[in-house]
Specification:
The structure holds 2 protein chains of 2 kinds. Chain A is an alpha/beta fold. Chain A contains 11 helices and 25 strands. Chain A folds into 4 domains: 116 residues, no CATH class; 121 residues, no CATH class; 128 residues, no CATH class; 49 residues, no CATH class. Chain A has a 7-stranded mixed β-sheet with strand order 5-8-2-3-4-1-9. Chain B is an alpha+beta fold. In chain B, 27% of the residues are buried. Classes of the chains: A alpha/beta, B alpha+beta.
Chain lengths: 560, 208
């Protein structure tokens, strides 16, 4: 029996994993990690249309939000209708939330405007696309790029307001908004109203100044220069140099219209100047009709209507009517009155009714009974312009006033104008009576007389020339000689002067000695009898010391 | 015609020797002129692994940017392909062709052929088209210039760094790895594959 153990079956391992396989594994790992990273960092592609692709370059132009690159332009193509350029932007993953529905895109290029220079850095680096993140929660893939940078970044604290104005004037996007001449905001956009009746300006006022805009705030156009001639001279008002060039808006809140801060996007009127803006509100207008029998040459639409000297409204229409009974042409003037301009007067009016129209009608009725009349008056004698004045006219004939008529008709009186013209005619007649011819003749004879007198005067002057002048010359010459002699006497080294000088010096010396003597006597009166106490010379006051040395003085004293 | 695949000829002095199995790390030397006849190189397994690693490195080197330069905050990147394309745009467009050949096409062919041949060899057989592939590998060897390319990139990076901000990209590291791997796998020992795939030889590739 064969006891030899049998061989086990050998199983060949087909795959022997050696360590060297770690090398491709590591390489694959690195590659895969890079792939995953690239895949994760790829954000959404968005499409922004621009009017032109100037400065944009596919694959190079970066997209920057707050100067941080958040993506690149990956492609530029024309839109389907060829009217615009579609830039495909590959946003980074971390900038994914920039693709909001109201996010704005614009191309940053060097720009020079009235309000400054921007985008200078792109001169060297090339244009890039700026992004301003919107606030909307909706995302979007398609955007319309702005042609100019937005005036206000989306996350800027502050408030927007809407201003309505008749016309844009020199205002533009970016025009400054001033409050007390401090720039606090700017115009962000403007557009025509849907019906084209006015311009809607959107302005942005930065925080914290936005709280100065209240419900009663007035806005006015501060563009350009406001020159006004008043009782205190010429006044020139401007906001700033930039406002002169590019226009601007200013606002202020009148004292009487304070209030809490206004809401976002509150609407205001943009007045043409500060005075208009700050005027109290006019309130509802009251249309009144006036019927004048006289022709009203010089009255124009827009002429003021004064009530007791207060500007109460203006003329809005002037039409001619025909009176069949009298066969004449009365002028019908429509005026618009703003009763609120009367202010506190209105509160004191009797109020039989809450309806303001009837209230005014009854008030006017009472006033007309007492003689209230409308008149056309001359505002300017030179130009002949008229205005309407509503005042009490004493002695005006009674007229019936229909309170229920609409529009109300205020009775008128004529005459002032005619009287004025009459007076003027009078003045002209008097001027006519002045005898200009006779005056002229008298003047002529007088001039002839004057001429004779002048001729005689001329002859006299000729004689003076011939006779008097040589004499005068001689006299002058002699005077000159005399003066020369005097000069000789008075010259410095002339003998009389020298003598005088010596004599004065002698007197000076004598005076000094006398003073010494009086000093000595003052101190020692006994020396008058006994002689000097110690035989020494008295001390001479140092301040009075003469220029000569004291020793010499002493000797002089003792020798005396 | 009879071929003597168990003999080996010194390529310098034409002396003929009998082929000996080489232990790892050993080398056979010509007794007449002293030239190295053959070395015990990588075994098939390692060879194939390194070839695969080279293939991955090649892909990374071609896909990822090699350098990233930025001037005034505007960055720009260049891959190997882009550099070749940029050359083709310029006045020396004719240089672009040898550049693309030496740093992209030739390494790609080398790695592809080696992978093809080695994968079959590891399975114990000769790949279809083995002989032309081997001839082509020998022919391509002098034209693979990844190391020259790497040197050029390094010089450019060093020179440009004075003028611009230059940052090496992942492609540069991949190119460096590719250079080392290609040198390892596509050296002149390629002809050893003839022996390794000789019918009846040890399919595992170990010659011990």
């Amino acid at each position: 029996m064969n006891m030899e153990p049998g061989d086990p079956d050998m199983i060949q391992r087909r795959w022997r994993v050696s360590l060297i396989w770690l090398v491709p594994a590591a390489a694959a790992l690195i590659g895969a990690s890079m792939l995953i990273q690239a895949w994760l960092s790829v954000g959404p592609d968005i499409f922004v249309t621009f009017r032109t692709a100037a400065g944009l370059e596919a694959g190079k132009t970066p997209v920057k939000f707050k100067d941080v690159t958040v993506g690149t332009v990956s492609g530029i193509a024309l839109s389907e209708d060829g009217s615009r350029v579609v830039a495909t932007i590959s946003l980074d993953k971390r900038a994914e939330n920039l693709a909001r529905a109201d996010t704005r895109f614009w191309v940053v290029r060097p720009r020079i405007g009235a309000s400054g220079v921007s985008g200078v850095d792109t001169l060297f680096s090339g244009a890039y696309i700026g992004v301003d993140r919107g606030a909307s929660s909706d995302t979007s893939r398609n955007f319309t790029g702005l042609e100019a940078p937005p005036a206000v970044p989306g996350d800027m604290p502050g408030k927007s307001f809407v201003l309505r104005t008749e016309e844009l004037g020199s205002l533009d996007i970016g025009s400054p908004v001033y409050h007390r001449r401090v720039q606090v905001g700017r115009v962000t956009s403007y557009r025509l109203d849907e019906d084209g009746s006015c311009v809607r300006l959107q302005i942005f006022v930065d925080a914290p100044y936005d709280r100065f805009v209240t419900a009663g705030t007035r806005f006015w156009n501060a563009s350009g220069v406001d020159v006004s001639l008043g009782a205190d001279g010429i006044r020139l008002k401007t906001q700033s140099l930039a406002a002169i060039v590019s226009g601007g808006i200013a606002f202020a809140t009148p004292e009487y219209a304070q209030g809490g801060p206004a809401a976002e996007n509150a609407q205001y009127l943009l007045a043409s100047d500060q005075a208009t803006a700050m005027a109290p509100p006019d309130g509802p207008a009251q249309y009144v009709r006036l019927r004048f029998k006289q022709p009203l040459r010089g009255l124009s639409v827009g002429a003021p209507v004064l009530f007791w000297g207060v500007d109460l409204g203006k003329v809005v229409s002037i039409t001619l009517d025909y009176d069949e009974a009298a066969h004449d042409f009365p002028t019908v003037v429509g005026v618009r009155l703003y009763p609120q301009r009367l202010g506190r007067v209105l509160e004191k009016l009797p109020a039989p009714d809450d309806d303001p129209q009837r209230r005014i009608a009854s008030f006017l009725g009472a006033m007309v009974d007492r003689g209230l009349r409308a008149q056309a008056r001359s505002a300017n004698l030179l130009t002949g312009q008229l205005y309407i004045s509503i005042e009490h006219v004493p002695g005006a004939p009674k007229v019936a006033f229909d309170e229920s008529a609409r529009p109300l008709t205020i009775p008128t009186v004529d005459g002032k104008l005619d009287r004025l013209q009459e007076q003027l005619a009078n003045i002209v007649g008097r001027i006519d009576k002045i005898p200009f011819d006779a005056i002229g003749k008298h003047l002529d004879t007088a001039l002839i007389d004057l001429r004779g007198a002048l001729t005689r005067l001329n002859g006299t002057l000729g004689r003076i020339d011939e006779q008097l002048l040589p004499e005068a010359a001689k006299t002058l010459q002699r005077a000159q000689e005399t003066l020369g002699a005097v000069e000789g006497v008075l010259s410095e080294d002339a003998p009389p002067l020298r003598d005088l000088s010596e004599a004065l010096k002698e007197i000076q010396r004598a005076a000094r000695s006398l003073r010494g003597l009086t000093d000595l006597l003052g101190r020692h009166p006994e020396s008058l009898l006994r002689g000097r106490p110690d035989g020494r010379a008295p001390a001479i006051a140092p301040a009075e010391a003469p220029p000569a040395p004291p020793a010499v003085e002493q000797r002089q004293e003792t020798s005396r | 015609m009879k071929t003597f695949s168990d003999l080996i000829v010194c390529e310098h002095c034409d002396s003929v020797y009998r082929r000996q199995p080489l232990p790892p790390g050993a080398a056979a030397r010509c007794g007449r002129c002293g030239a190295i006849l053959r070395r015990a190189g990588l075994d098939l397994d390692r060879w194939l692994a390194l070839t695969l690693a080279a293939a991955i490195a090649f892909v990374i080197a071609n896909v990822c940017p090699v350098v990233r330069i930025s001037m005034q905050g505007i960055p720009n990147e260049a891959t190997l392909w882009k550099s070749a394309a940029a050359l083709a745009q310029g006045p020396i467009a004719c240089v672009a062709v040898p550049l693309a050949l030496s740093i992209i096409v030739v390494p790609f062919l080398q790695i592809g052929l080696l992978a093809w041949v080695l994968a079959h060899a590891r399975a114990g057989r000769r790949a279809p088209g083995f002989a032309p592939a081997m001839r082509l590998l020998v022919l391509l060897r002098p034209w693979s210039m990844v190391e020259v390319c790497l040197l050029g990139i390094l010089v450019a990076v060093a020179k440009l760094s004075h003028l611009l901000q230059v940052a090496p990209g992942p492609g540069l590291w991949a190119t460096a790895g590719l250079m080392a791997l290609v040198t390892l796998i596509a050296n002149r020992d390629v002809q050893r594959l003839w022996d390794l795939t000789e019918p009846g030889s040890n399919p595992s590739g170990t010659e011990a």
